[in-house]
Design a protein that fits this description.
With 76 residues, the protein is mostly helical. Helices cover 72% and strands 0% of the residues. Helix 1 runs antiparallel to helix 2.
Amino acid sequence: MKQNKPLFEMKQLIIWKIAIASSLSWEIAKSAGSHHPYLAPLTVILCIKAMPDQTISFAVNRMIGTMVIGTNGGLQ
């Protein structure tokens, strides 16, 4: 029989996931030469969802959208 985790454990997991991913994204953005590394953790915070498959799906869609807008020059 499958036991459900208490709600506070689920929230703790999401908080840790956001903290670690935000830190990593900041460092990656800085090492890549970004002049605005604060945008990387902001993107992480917007993309993190409760379930890993939702997070990956949302992040992939966001990357594709960013690349399409970036290659087309944005809204002109």
